[in-house]
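Lab notebook, bench 4. The sequencing result for the construct came back, and we need a structural model before the next group meeting so we can plan mutations. Quick request posted to the team channel:

Model the 3D structure of this chain.
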Amino acid sequence: LQSESRMFNGVEKDCPSPTEKLARKESLKVQKQNYRQEKKRAAKELSTALKDPSVIIMSNWLKIRGSLKSWTRLWCALKPGVLLIYKTPKTDHWVGTILLSACKLIERPSKKDGFCFKLYHPLDKSIWAVKGPKGENVGSITQPLPSNYLIFRAASESDGRCWMDALELALSCSSLYKLTAKAGKEGDISTTSESSHILNLLQSTALTDTELLQLNDTVLLGNHHMEHDGFSDKSEREAHDDWDAAANENGGRLTEESDVDQSDELSPGPQATAYVEQSTEEMAEAGEASQVETVSEENKGLIWSLLKQLRPGMDLSKVVLPTFILEPRSFLDKLSDYYYHADLLSQASLEESAYGRIKQVLRWYLSGFYKKPKGLKKPYNPILGETFRCCWLHPETNSCTFYIAEQVSHHPPISAFYVCNRKDGFSISGSILAKSKFYGNSLSAILDGKARLLFLSRDEEYVITMPYAHCKGILYGTMTLELGGKVTIECEKTKCVAELEFKLKPFLGGSGSVNQINGKIFVGEEVLATVDGHWDNEVFIHEKRSGQQEILWNPSPEIRSGRLKRQVVQLDQQGEFESERLWRHVTSAIMDRDQVRATQEKFVLEEAQRRDTRERGDKPWLPQLFHPHSVTSEWTYKHMDTRPWEPERCFVQFEKDGVIQTQEKSQRQHNGLSYSHSWASQQKVKLKYLLMSYSNQCARCSKEIKDIAMLEASITSIKKTQQDIQR
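Done. Here's the predicted structure in token form:
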């Protein structure tokens, strides 16, 4: 049929025939169907990226300035194209999502400490997404936040620069990310091999230099399975040149490396435990107020029913205590509080005089007491075979202090621990027998045992004892917790001794007599200095020879905020008998203030321990990481290494499955192992793989290849920033 011609407003136009109308209708129907499928594909792709916890470029705490000019500390997780903001790292309390495709990034000057930067919309439009990653319509309640910009503050300039580089990278990724699944016929990112490969790479942790170079060769140089079109050869050649140029700027290397000789043979790197910075912790203020517990009427009944079972002088190690007095962490975790200022021991090992060393050791010893829970709380009694591990990074020396603890006996309850930093020249080993005595209106928790501090290069050992904890006011009065007793720090080799006495508050004493401490420092028989003050506040030292007085220790807000950051193992990577995972249900119930559930969960663990004891019978328990010393019978770490650090021989110290070990330079590998591995190095290697996979999918478009070259330059900038952090 021929189309008819009609006049419309004096203009002749063709009128389509019924067949043409039907064809156009069918064509429009197909277009609408493709349109809807493309919308679903894009939405599903973005939803997958938002919901997958492994697809993260960077995450950490940042302070955000609200509309009322006050700052709020929030957890920020950076993903390709979006910045997710939560109240806590658990991602249960979503605050908001920033769409980076609409944002610009700029550094912002600031008078205060830290580093500020600003994300803003250039046209003053909203930068927020309407819904959350799980479909939330309303975010968690915080102080009001601006709609068209956000101002962030990082803890240091190095952290801020790293965030700036990562955000630039995410801004660039936001346009490339849309292309990841277009090759799939079904439009599902999870169904394409390339997309699955990307997600698998993002979930990996340890990647060697050899693997990275192999992938570089296959993705960037091979491309044998790609179709050849009019511009593919040119695009691949340009991409290869861009990557080579970026590599030459970095000394011919595209991977994260330590400063090692490139002539060394490639060998498998140490598979070290991946640590992450601890997100939250409880810390009470100094003074008596934080050591007082007001017991509710409901809990008083529980205490009275418990006291009916006790007699003065009775040992409480076999008594089941109510959960409302429990601090939600294990005693093995509690013992690690002494090492947040382990850098003081690094400084002590460098002191030339014996007196200077013991004074610095005393300063470190005092630094372990100010961290305390609010109120009268007791940590969990560890289960037999329970372990705990953590570490602290030393930015000044680029080293790491590792802490390993294990419950080696249940009756009597003995906790063994080992601390080591070979590079900074010290290690600590010891075991604690926890005893509790009931005296009527009070009870005491006695830590019977010794810690042995060893300076490796000097072969000096300092034997250290612990004070006891005293709780009074159980039957009448106010329940109060204090520290008491005499302790010593003694070095037999140098004849240096520090004696301290933790004093209990006298009956008629005021607030100034709480947490008092005094003592002396001897060298031989001579008293060189006296010490007095409060163990949770200022402690002064008086030099006998010079007559001068100075502050030996003061846990001021500046000292607290500048202490070492503890690194822990993520819950899903812990063993079944590691403290946090073992007690997770009890901790969850206590945090939810559900005492009934906490008691039930605690009973399950204790009953399982009793059942294991019955099944074991007369067979002795064999600890995993510690054994009794053949001479002293003290519990010692099986993998102890007390050799002094040799820079020309030793490469790096690391931990895997509770075993602290040192990789020597003859065994090292090109990809190295730096202490930013737990966060920065892993993220950069994952990003590099991600970008290489992008290049394989986008090689048809020269524009995207140029973007990839720009991303590689951003990665190089991140690498330089991380090297500055390590220095």
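The first helix runs from residue 18 to 51.
Will bring this to the meeting.
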